[in-house]
Every structure is written in structure tokens, then in C-alpha cells.
Amino acid sequence: MKTKTFFSIKILTIFSFIFLLNSCTDLNEVVLDEKSGNAVSDPAGSLAAAYDRLGDGTFTDHGAIFAMQEYTTDEAILPTRGSDWGDGGKWRDMHEFTWSSTNAIIVSNWDLLNNGITRSLTAIKSAQEGTFSEKTLFLAESKALLAYYTYTTLDLYGQAPYRDPLNVTAPLQILKADTQIDQLIKDVEALIPDLADSGTQRTHHGRFTKQAAYAFLANMYLNRAVFKDRFNASSAFNFNEPAVAGSTGTDMDRVIYYTSLLIDSGKYSLESDFFKNFARTNENGTELIFAISQKIDYIRNGSNSFAYVSMERNQRTSAANRGTNAACTTPEFYASWDGNHDDPRFEQHYQYPDGTWFMNDGTDVSVPATDIVPKSSPALPWFHFNRGIQAGLQYGPILLPSGSLEMTGNRIKVSPLVMEKSTTTRMNFTPSLTFADPTKSVFAQNEINQGARVFKYEFDPEGGNGNSNVDMPLFRLGGVYAMRAEAYFRKGSAGLAMIDLNKLRTSRKRESLFGNAPGKALTTLDSDQLYKELGFELYWELQRRPESIRFGKFDLPGTAKAATQPFRRAFPIPQTVIDQKVFKQNQGYN
User: Fold this and answer.
1) Crossing angle of the two packed helices 135-157 and 177-191, in degrees rounded to 10
2) Which terminus of the chain is more exposed, N or C, with fewer CB under 10 A?
3) Looking at residue 301, what is its pLDDT?
């Protein structure tokens, strides 16, 4: 059973639940527009609202932070598919690097992150001015969330707003990435004594604990050199400069220090089934360090976006569910797996309780109808698609005009699938993308089948297409090993880096269809292979853009993308914000 309550019933009053349901701070009430800290005086409600901004779209919807961190890279692209997904070009802008300061994705994400900053400032003020037993803990968590929202804003936009939450007349401050990164690191390090150990003080992976702080600090140190010299034309970032004042060693030494605290803590272990990290039952996942807790209930219904966005409209987990035929991966990322299709992280077949495997290769006749969509009434048979990266001809159930899945006896019939909006086009997820104009990611209606799809996150059919019980990882143990491997490599210790990468590879096991075979170990390692390995472990987890900048890949040409200038490593400040004459526009966008 999932437990999603942030705080004890004694502290989290009915008012707090109402507060959470009604999104305490209106999206328009951003730091630029309002004095923060005057919305609510209840500390539990204020902190719950600050956490709520992590979900409710921001880090869980493909059109939010995901669009900026993934659609701008080789891991993901959302092309215009015939009559679908034009939307004024906002999706294509992300991958074609043609965005401007008026792009709707850039504007909406600025608002979301600023709202997270405002909610965190409100939570800080509420905790600071209150008198209650968990004051120190709530204050530390509020400040940690403020640092997380601020860091993400600086990562994407290079600038972020701040206003002292305890001084209603305080002037607005404009923080800059190159100068603020050191202060953010110091601020989070100072919070560690006041944060709870995960599992104590009613905490879990949905709250900001000491362990979440360790992972966050490792991530900040890993990217510190980029923040300080983002527009370096040669991408020659100094990853081994001395750590912030008061800390020993270099940036990479600090990455190794914080990641080792997590790896050696005994609190976490790698899942042998890689895809359990992204399953609807992952609430007790052994890798999750800091995650967005999702639950389909009357308080909050989670987001199915990362699963829904790749699945085709005629791919149905039940008679009441379907995909939306939007995003896919690129030929470059698919090709990076060459020679590694037997890696347990690449693909996984589903086995039903009676032993039936869904092969998705044309040999399937039917699967059991004994799995039922939770809480469905009348009971709906649940069809399970395979996980991982799916390419080639696709098979599955067909929805009849009656509104039911086609059956054969008491089993779900498996048939060849066609595209819903191009019914003469076979559903064939081709790894290649054949745009008529190679510079523009636009498909004709009979080409909308193209693109290998990412089924990493389990599609949860319980609450409709949009809802999910999958807890969304922000930091997990696999990513911690990947950070440490990169830090070792950048220090010149390729052997130690390879040990960590091989831990990731060989700890994962294939399904019993393939004898539970472990992944194969690397025997050599260079920078290009390391970059591939980060992709194998962390694809579609909002890490690729920072990775590609660190490795000098972000500016390079690719599918539907020309070579670009370094100024694109940061997004523009929205024009609506510039018009207020408080922020100055980032270089290159004037």
C-alpha cells in the first residue's frame, strides 16, 4: 500500500489537505508579481504545497521540464505527425533549436519553477514564524526545496529570482548561475544536520532527506564547472577546480564523496529488474532516494505522461486506455545501443501469470484476460505491453466498435496493429526518421508510424490515460553510480569508473525468457562510451541535456538539428518577464 502522507495527522490538518487540493499559491503569483510569504500561515500546508509543485506537471509531464531537458537532446523528439502535434511549432522548436523567448514551453516552465520558488519561500516564512515540534525539520526541507527549484531554474535559464521571505519589503534579487552555484552548494551543505535520515521522522523517498541532499550536492558539483563557464565555445570545462570554500579536494572529489555516502550507506540497492524502478508498484523501490510520490486518490492523481506520450493511439492497455502517438527517440540514440540490445535496460518482455510471454513479433495469438485494471467497474482486462525501447512492427489488442477488446474465447486476442489516424499505415516503429525536409521534424500523415518508442515507465491504466501510481525518480541509486563513474573518469581513473559502470551493467538481469542473464561487463572505456553508458542508465530521466553539455555534444548537428552556438546552452528569459524590465535577456536572444 502506498503511503503518500507527508506529515503526521496531528500536524497535517484538514486545512492543509484543502490547501494542497487548491494549489495554495496561484500559478500567476510568482516572485516577480507578488510579495512572497503572505499566502498561508499553516507550516504543514505551506510545505505540502511546495512539494506539490514537484508533481502536478512540473517534473512529471512531458511538456514541462522534460521537454527542455530531453526533447533538446538525442534521447527524445516530438515531431509534427501529420495533423497532430503541430501546436504552433512549440515541440519542434525544442529539438530543432529554433526556440525564442515567446515559446510556450519556455514561458510555462518559467512560471512553474517560479511558482515552486514562491511556494518554498512561503513555506520558509511559515515554518520560521511558527512554534511547533518539527519546526527545524520543516524549515530545512523548505530551504532544500527552494534550492532545488532555484538550481533547476539556473540550469535552464541561467538566472532566477529571489526575495527574502522574512522581509515583506525586501527587494527582488536576480541570481546568476555562474555566481550562485557556490552559494547553493553551501546552503544545502548547511542544511544536512537538520534534515532527517530517510525513514526517520516519518520521512520516505518523497521528502527531502539527508540522502536526497547528498545526491543533490553530487549533482551540483558534477555540473558546477558548466554553471561557472557555460558558454565556453570549446566545452573545455574545468571539472577539477578546487571545491567551494570550506570543502576539501576538487569538484569531482566532492561528487565521489557524496555518492559514496549513498552507495556505502546500506540504505539502497540496485534493482536486478531495471524496470521495477519505473513500475506502478515502485513505492518500495530499493533505488529511490528522492522521488515524486504519486497516488491515484482523491487528493492527487499523479501523471502518466512519460508512459502515455510514446504509446500509439491504437495501443491499448484496456478498453478504456490508449496512447497518444507523440514522442520517440532519435536514430542517433537508438544506434548508440548497437551491440547492446541484450542489455537488460534496453527491452523487457512481459510474462503473464499463466506463463504466456508477449513476444510482439507476430507469433502471439492471445494472452490471458485474468489481469484486471485496478478499481475498474465493470472489470476491464488489462493488456501489458513490453517495456524499454520498442521498435519494428507492433502487435496488441484491437478495440471493437462495441467498446470492448477483441477476445478469442476467454483470452485477449493479439493482432497486427495499424495507426489510428492513418488506418492503411501499419504500426511500424522504425528507428529511422525520414523527414521530407531533413531540417524540419514534420511527417506526412502516412509517415506517422515512425520512430522507436520509449516504454520505460509503466503505463498505469487505473485512473484513465492521465493518472498514475508510479513514483517518479529524481535521484536514484543507479544515477548515483553513474555520477561517481563520471567523476572517477574525469579525475583520470578510468578503471574505477569502469567498475561502477559494470556494477550497473551486471547487477541488472534479463527476464527469465533469457535465463535471467546479467548484462555484460565493459572491458574498455573512453569518453564516448561513458556518454553512451549514462544514456543506457538514465534515458528519459531529465538528465540528458546537462549530460550533453558536459560532454560537448549539445551544440552538434543531429536529426532535424543543425549545429548551434553555445548561447543555446541556456534558454531565453520569457519575453513577458523581460517586458517587466527587471531581468536582462540572456546573451544571444536579444
Assistant:
1) 160
2) N
3) 78
Q: By three-state DSSP, how is residue 579 classified? A: coil
- Return the HEC string of 322-390: CCCCCCECCHHHHHCCCCCCCCCCCEECEECCCCCEECCCCCCCEEECCCECCCCCCCCECCCCCEEEE
Looking at beta carbons, which pairs linking 489-495 to residues 24 or more positions away fall under 8 Å? 489/525, 489/527, 489/530, 490/239, 490/240, 490/252, 491/240, 491/250, 491/252, 491/253, 491/256, 494/525, 494/526
d(C-alpha 535, C-alpha 329), whole Å:
12
Q: What is the pLDDT of residues 30-66, one digit of tens each?
A: 444 444 444 446 999 999 999 999 999 999 999 999 9
- Beta-carbon neighbour count of residue 386 at 10 Å? 18
Average pLDDT, stretch 441-455? 98
Q: Is 223 helix (H, G, I), strand (E, B) or coil?
A: helix
The type of residue at 514 is F
Dihedral of the alpha carbons of 274, 280, 281, 284, in degrees to the nearest 10 = 70
pLDDT of residue 3: 42
**Exposed (0-12), middle (13-18) or buried (19+): which is 389, by Cβ within 10 Å?**
buried
Contact 136, 194 (CB under 8 A): yes
Taken in order 227, 231, 232, 234, the sign of the CA dihedral is: positive
| String of DSSP letters for 262-319 | HHTTSS----SSGGGGGSTTGGG-SSEEEEE----SSS-----HHHHTTS-TT--SST
Q: How far apart (Å, rounded) are the C-alpha atoms in residues 215 and 237?
A: 22
Q: Using CA atoms, how far apart are residues 393 and 399, in angstroms rounded to an integer?
A: 18
Q: Give the chain's domains with CATH numbers.
A: 43-301+473-580 (1.25.40.390)
How crowded is residue 69: how many other Cβ atoms within 10 Å of its Cβ?
26
pTM of the predicted structure, to 2 decimals: 0.94
Q: Is residue 117 within 8 Å of 150, Cβ to Cβ?
A: yes
> What's the confidence (pLDDT) of residue 500?
98
Query: How many CB atoms neighbour CB 130 within 10 A?
Result: 16
Phi, psi of 372, rounded to the nearest 5 degrees: -115, 135
φ/ψ of residue 518, rounded to 5: -75, 160
d(CA 445, CA 421): 8
